[in-house]
Write a structure and sequence with these properties.
This protein has eleven helices and ten strands. Helices cover 44% and strands 18% of the residues. It is of the alpha/beta class and 334 residues long. The longest helix is centred in the last third of the chain and has 27 residues. Helix 4 crosses helix 11, helix 5 crosses helix 6 and helix 6 packs across helix 8. The strands form two sheets. The chain has a five-stranded mixed beta sheet, with helices on both faces. It has a five-stranded mixed beta sheet with strand order 8-7-6-9-10, sandwiched between helices. The structure holds 5'-O-[(R)-(carboxyoxy)(hydroxy)phosphoryl]adenosine and zinc ion. The site of 5'-O-[(R)-(carboxyoxy)(hydroxy)phosphoryl]adenosine (KG4) has 19 residues, from helix 5 and helix 6. Its main location: cytoplasm.
């Protein structure tokens, strides 16, 4: 498998992205076309609008990714695509485009799980070392995953209601902050103090599951109560208090998983890994506990196709191909 070139396609939500990755480790191009501007005025991703935007952009972005990588189509070895989970209409555009390319170029078609992609974003920085624990925190997922070797994912815990990023976005929306709210709350937190007492859902002792809907409701009740009394709640202090409640649980449970499995590597993945508070707290704790922490650079934290191509390369090495009946699967399990 010397010098394998894999083209990856990611359209699971509101980013149209195409990348070319060499040997599963080197990003030759990673074009990301965000639809944020379109969805912002609706306060969230509108699935129909997302699909339509993907259709309009995908062909141009494929050409752009090849041009930026300085790679011609005939030099590609495989086409990797996010099969799920995600918005079905959005996923379909990527899957249909990948199938067309694989058919036209007579190349293997490699379906990739979106979360596997987020984890493999780290592989683009430094090769993964096993065994490891991955904390995957995005708009759709909050999961703790144990990996003993390439492509072997064991889920140790997950959210029972809202994902971490979803909680950030919903609370931000309630506070009147623009979409997506995660980065806004992150920014405001840095200027605020943790002064509001908000609940942490620890669940059963030793549990590695998460729950954020109670916290979200508490924030809303706090704001409504203040409004009734004619009091004002500072956005910065509320952001800091909410973020602290989320991070306390994320950090504690990630290290609980590390301890339970006796691993030395902790990996952070997904859009919420962009959170500066989370990064700082995990780094501090990792140093205290003598654990190696891996966090992808910001541009590889949020949805992108390079991470799909990276995971896709290992699936390609293992011959995990799909035929042209491949369908998008919005509820795909890891
Ligand atoms: O991985 P991603 O791009 O898309 C999904 O697969 O969901 O993650 C997007 C999520 C959004 O909920 C967004 O608010 C959150 O990641 N996010 C953040 C930050 N940057 C992005 N949440 C907290 N702090 C941030 N700095
Ligand atoms: Zn994602």
């Amino acid at each position: 498998h010397k010098n394998s070139l894999v083209l990856g396609i990611e359209t699971s939500c509101d980013e149209t992205s195409v990348a070319v990755v060499k040997n599963g480790t080197k990003v030759l191009s990673n074009v990301i076309s965000s639809q944020m501007d379109v969805h912002r005025r609706f306060g969230g991703v509108v699935p129909e609008v997302a699909s339509r935007r993907h259709v309009e952009r995908i062909t141009v972005i494929i050409e752009q990714a090849l041009a930026e990588a300085n790679v011609t189509k005939d030099r590609l070895d495989a086409i990797a695509v996010t099969q799920g989970p995600g918005l079905v209409g959005a996923l379909l555009i990527g899957v249909a485009s990948a199938k067309a390319l694989a058919y036209a170029l007579n190349l293997p078609l490699v379906p990739v799980h979106h979360i596997a992609g987020h984890i493999y974003a780290n592989h683009l920085v430094t090769p993964l070392e096993f065994p490891l624990i991955a904390l995957v925190v995005s708009g759709g997922h909050t999961e703790l995953i144990y990996m003993e070797s390439h492509l072997h994912f064991v889920r140790l815990g997950q959210t029972r209601d809202d994902a971490a990023g979803e909680a950030f976005d919903k609370v931000a929306r309630f506070m009147g902050l623009p979409y997506p709210g995660g980065p806004q709350i992150d920014r405001l937190s840095a200027q605020g103090k943790v002064i509001y007492d908000l609940p942490r859902a620890w669940l059963e002792p030793e549990s590695l599951d998460f729950s954020f809907s109670g916290l979200k409701s508490s924030v809303m009740q706090l704001m409504q109560k203040a409004e009734r009394k004619g009091e004002t709640i500072g956005q910065a202090d509320l952001s800091a208090s909410f973020q602290a409640a989320v991070l306390d649980v994320l950090v504690e449970k990630a290290f609980r998983a590390v301890k339970q499995k006796g691993v030395k590597q902790l990996l952070l993945a997904g859009g919420v890994s962009a959170n500066s508070g989370l990064r700082v707290r995990l780094m501090k704790r990792a140093e205290e506990e003598g654990i190696t922490l891996r966090i992808p650079p910001l541009e590889l934290c949020t949805d992108n196709a390079a991470m799909i191509a990276a995971a896709g390369t290992y699936l390609y090495y293992e011959g995990k191909f799909a035929d042209l009946t491949l369908n998008a699967n919005p509820g795909l399990s890891l």
